[in-house]
Amino acid sequence: MNITDAHVHLITAGMADSAYHRYLKLFPAFPDAVRHNAQKLFGGGFPEYLAQTTIEQQAREWLSQMDKHGVSRVVFFPIAERLEEMRDFIRHAPGRFYGYAFIEEPAGETAPVRLKTAVNEFGLCGLKLYPSIQMFHPGDAALFPLYEEAQSLGIPITFHFGISNAPIADYRFVNPMEIQLPLKLFPRLNFIIAHFGAGYFREACLLGFHNKNIHLDTSGTNNWREYTPEKMPLEEVFRRAVAIYSAERILFGTDSLLRPGAGYRGAIKEEQIGIVQRIGISESEQALVMGENAERLLARDGSAP
């Protein structure tokens, strides 16, 4: 079975700096809080690692980890709009590395043009939006030009809703129900909700009602379950997701990030393969979840990526 991990992270020193200054811009009166929360998440030698590691070195390290864990392709999400850095990174492994764009101020007038550049000139294949750290409501009509451009380009948009490990996140913007109207208005645009909704699994399930252009990714430990009243076993989350969405709209991911002392999250991969094999779907459906769905969504021309 070919494995495509549809959700991992690339962070460079430039991306980390841009993200840090985004927070300072959003919260200029709270520099100490921004610094404290950033250090809490990215401490432990990570800033030093980024400063000393080139994009080429990260690419080699990723390829080594992918080969070690039997992963054919990986989809990388950036944390800032450093489009050139993502372009340079994915060029090190065509056919194995796929990169998403991140657009600062997605409701801004120039956002659609910047997305078009990212896709047509830099070879990126999707858009990552993070409402709770970018402070926007995804159902706001100001986002519609960006959605229209993504639909025209034939790329998917992955949203992080729900709880977050980000240094500062505003939970006023975490409910996936906000994309209910865009789902109807942009029927040829594929929307992906990361982490099964990260605590908003009920809402993610409801969005599956009469909407065929929405997908779920399975990425990460899914420890959001520990903070819900029902505390569903992960296997049951998979069962319900497949029952509502079908195996054709579930995408495997690990939410991996290479950093000192932490490589590819192979344990998550093995756990989720085991679950997919136990929930009563066919081998062909298992292959859809573990890679073929992501490959289909990434193929703008209808061919395999």
Question: Can you characterise this structure?
Answer:
This protein has 305 residues and is of the alpha/beta class. It has one domain (4-298): TIM Barrel, CATH 3.20.20. 44% of the residues lie in helices and 10% in strands. Strands 4-5-6-7-8-9 form a six-stranded parallel sheet. The protein has a three-stranded parallel sheet with strand order 1-2-3. Strand 8 (214-217), helix 11 (234-245) and strand 9 form a beta-alpha-beta unit. Helix 4 (55-69) crosses helix 5 and helix 6 packs parallel to helix 8.
Briefly summarize what is shown.
The protein has helices at 13-26, 31-42, 46-52, 55-69, 83-90, 111-120, 131-134, 144-153, 180-185, 201-207, 234-245, 266-278, 283-298, and strands at 4-9, 73-77, 97-99, 101-102, 127-129, 157-159, 191-193, 214-217, 250-251. It is of the alpha/beta class.
Keywords:
disordered C terminus, three-stranded parallel beta sheet, six-stranded parallel beta sheet, 305 residues, 44% helix, TIM Barrel, alpha/beta, globular, 10% strand, 9 strands
List the helices and strands and how they pair.
Blueprint (H helix, E strand, L loop, with lengths): L3 E6 L3 H14 L4 H12 L3 H7 L2 H15 L3 E5 L5 H8 L6 E3 L1 E2 L8 H10 L6 E3 L1 H4 L9 H10 L3 E3 L20 H6 L5 E3 L7 H7 L6 E4 L16 H12 L4 E2 L14 H13 L4 H16 L7
Parallel strand pairs: 1-2, 2-3, 4-5, 5-6, 6-7, 7-8, 8-9
Helix pairs in contact: 4-5, 6-8
- Cα distance, first to last residue? 16 Å
Task: Please tell me how large the radius of gyration is.
Answer: 18 Å
What is the helix content?
A: 40-55%
The tally of beta strands, per DSSP, is: 9
Query: Regarding CATH, which class?
Result: Alpha Beta
**Structural class designation:** alpha/beta
What is the count of helical runs? 13
Major β-sheet, in short? Answer: 6 strands, parallel
Strand fraction equals: 5-15%
Q: What's the CATH topology name?
A: TIM Barrel
Question: What is the count of distinct domains?
Answer: 1
Report the mean per-residue pLDDT as an integer. 94
Secondary-structure element series: EHHHHEHEEHEHHEHEHEHEHH
Overall shape: it is globular
Spans where pLDDT lies below 50 across 5 or more residues: 301-305
